[in-house]
Every structure is written in structure tokens, then in C-alpha cells.
Amino acid sequence: MTGFQQGGAAGFKSLTMGVKSFGKALMAGPQIIIFAIIAAVATLIEMFNGADQAISDIQKDLGGTKAQAVETYKAAQGMAAEMGIVGVNTKEIAKGMATVSEIMGGLDVATQIKAGNKELEQFAKDATVLSQKFGLSAEEIGNIKSLATITGESMGSLVQKSRIIQEVFQSSLNNLRDRKDSQLF
């Protein structure tokens, strides 16, 4: 879990605990109520500061206006929640969206995703996994996207097939080496 996700999760957990303690405080007396209110306000401020820092980081990393960074953050949050099972976080999604924007000639990916462009959203998810988890460059991802468009197959399917081909090729090379080594002895 990244700082982006930890900040939001920790803030929400603190807020929940604050609400529970507030209920208990009502029974304890007015001084505790005042302290509970102060703690709840401090927790809310901390939670908003965490989101603001994440948005500032996105703006710094990707450039653009604060409004664009907010849109990117919102889109990335939703996609990260969907992709949490593969260990992708909000910051990585934002970088994947930047990769897609670069490939698409500067297209505002967050706005397109917000408008309901499911194909571009899937492309951003694929690009995130390929760039952040497999280390592929924007050019390599663009080539895979072009091939996917030409063949009518998904990027995920092409990547899976290429990995199978790589494994078969590596196995064949290993077999040839083993044969060569056995012939020497």
C-alpha cells in the first residue's frame, strides 16, 4: 500500500475511531466532548492534507494544472481500487495514465476516462501494469497497442502470448545447450 492509499485509509480509520470515541465521550462529560471534537477536526484536516499532497505530487510528476491533477487523482483512485488485486496503487495508475497520454500525443486521459471512454481506461490499466510491473517503455507499450489494434486482440492477450513464445524459445535454447554439452562428453 502506498502513501496515497495509506493516507486515505489511515485518515478514514482515524475518523471512524473518532466517531466511536465521540459517542463514548458524550457519556463522560463536556470536557471530553470538546477534546473529541478537536480530535475529529484534526483527523479531517490530516485526511484532506494527505489527498492534497497526493494531488500536488501528481501535478509535479505529470505537469498541468491543479484541476487536471485533481481529475487524474480521482480517475486513478477508482482504477487503483479496481486493480488492487494486482498490487497497483493510485500513484502507479497516474504514471500509467501519463504514459498513455504520451503515447496518444498529449491527450487528456483523465478527462476521457471521466467521460466514460472504457477503451482508454483499459489501455491506461494495461499501460500501468506493463510500465510499472514489467518495466516497458512508452514506445514498447505503444507498439503493443498498435499490434493489438491491427490484430484485433487485447493487449493482455498479446503480452500473454509473447511470454509463452519467450518461454518456449528459452526452453529450446536450453535443450540445444544441453545437447551440445552432452555431445562434448
Sum up the structure in keywords.
185 residues; mainly alpha; 8 helices; elongated
Offer a quick outline of the entry:
Helix content is 85%, strand content 0%.
Terminal CA distance reads 53 Å
Tell me what portion of residues adopts beta-strand conformation: under 5%
Uncertain spans, ≥5 residues at pLDDT below 50?
A: none
Number of helices: 8
Q: Using the CA coordinates, give the radius of gyration.
A: 24 Å
Shape: elongated
User: What is the SS-derived class?
Assistant: mainly alpha
Mean pLDDT: 75
Annotation, overall tally of beta strands: 0
Helix content: over 70%
Order of secondary-structure elements: HHHHHHHH
How would you characterize the largest beta sheet?
none
Question: Could you characterize the architecture of this molecule?
Answer:
By secondary structure, the chain is mainly alpha-helical. It has a domain at 1-62. It is 85% helix and 0% strand. The protein has 8 helices and no strands. 24% of the residues are buried.
How do the helices and strands line up, and which of them pair or pack?
Layout: H1 3-28, H2 30-62, H3 66-83, H4 90-103, H5 109-114, H6 118-133, H7 138-151, H8 155-184
Helix pairs in contact: 1-2, 2-3, 2-4, 3-4, 4-6, 4-7
